[in-house]
Amino acid sequence: MKQVELLKNKATEQLVHEVDVGIHVVDLNGTTIIYNKKMAQIEGMNQLDVLNKKLVDVFSFHKNEDSTLLQALKNGEPIKNVKQTYFNNRGQEITTINHTIPIMDGRKRIGAMEIARDVTKLEKLLRENMNRKNDTYYTFDSIIGKSPAIREVIEASKRATRTNSSVLIIGDTGTGKELFAQSIHNGSGRSSASFISQNCAALPDNLIEGLLFGTKKGAFTGAIDRPGLFEQAEGGTLLLDEINSLNPSLQAKLLRVIQEKTVRRVGDTKDKKIDVRILATMNEDPIDAISEGRLRKDLYYRLSVVTLFIPPLRNRKEDIYELAYAFVQKYNHLFGLNVTLIHDNVLQTFMQYDWPGNVRELEHIIEGALNVITYENEISYNHLPMHFRKKIHIKPGTQKNNPQEVTASELQPLDKHMEEAEIDYLKQALQQFNFNITKTAEALRMSRQNLQYRLKKYGIRNHRDGSSGPK
Ligand SMILES: Nc1ncnc2c1ncn2[C@@H]1O[C@H](COP(=O)(O)OP(=O)(O)OP(=O)(O)O)[C@@H](O)[C@H]1O
Ligand SMILES: [Mg+2]
Fold it and tell me: What is the pTM of this model?
């Protein structure tokens, strides 16, 4: 019998430290009797700094009553699934979700026990994602570039400011999707209301759902009454970045919100009317995303009322010069410099380069150059960041500053080659059918929509309009 008692005691003692939840037991005075390892980890404490001390001497709460342990001690009632935010003795903020239970000896209360799960990180993530409102700074004046390709997108975007239709902005990374989205908002009648942008790839499904649509208290463990981004963007614009990363079942919910212009918080039964303009971005071909199941067709049709395709920088190299000088100005201003020139060699290198990171990459290179420049007023090849210089091939034995010797690798990446072949083939086919889209699409066994998307993507224009394409 004694053996059994011993085993029970030992097992309980061990169990307390093996489980993956925090356990904290106080006696009637609020002094800590049991404090497991997990709890110490959650609260960023040393076990010895907490054991045998009074709870309120170690932790601070907004009010002492906020301690769920003390409440359970006082009221003798269990408290379930309550979220608590408090501070450890170093002022570090902690957020947990607790079950707190009074410990009884028959009818006598002798202490209280708390079982806690750590949600500090989750809480921080949600908060960081909640407080971004109206922090736009781009307008159409910020968009640099005179290439026909970029001017065409700017014109289409300006037309889009007059309506409330959804806009789908497609472009590779760094092409300026955010810039266009902000410009549309700021150029529209909604400019004095909120602009909220949310990256759909940044958070796991369950979090993003609550974040977008809001939550009702009790919807799930730790849920509180919280408006979603749709409600927060009321009267304004909501930018959903990387929409193709959103789980398809959430895409269906999103479609319903857009169509019905009402939103229902997770766990709620009531719908709320909303007036929000939706802009969405993606960085891949929507036709591919649909065929590979990443984008719902019905959502695509709804979002693509206006589709803006921002061409990659390599297809509008005539913008490089102006962009490069604009970034020189920007960083002159920021760094207190007075650089006025970019050496021809450098500009030529820029013209030969492929720019996989697009305008953002160009901006970073100029920023990098202005970081190393000392007294010169001209950016030369040697100021360019090493990682960039490594990417462009230089014939051995030649001087780095000699432009003629800076050549690209003889083989180009396969996808670029395929793209060029596709462009040539499309142009050929169009010519054969006298630029009749329906007939050309039929001959190529593709949908009209797919063909039109590709023409837009590559900036191939219908020659029957009398306009000539940028290529
Ligand atoms: N036409 C442009 N004129 C001036 N600056 C530009 C232009 N296009 C892009 N930029 C600048 O390049 C950077 C990247 O732009 P932005 O963030 O809008 O790209 P993005 O398409 O949203 O990229 P990602 O897909 O990676 O999110 C920003 O600093 C932006 O100011
Ligand atoms: Mg972006």
Answer: 0.65
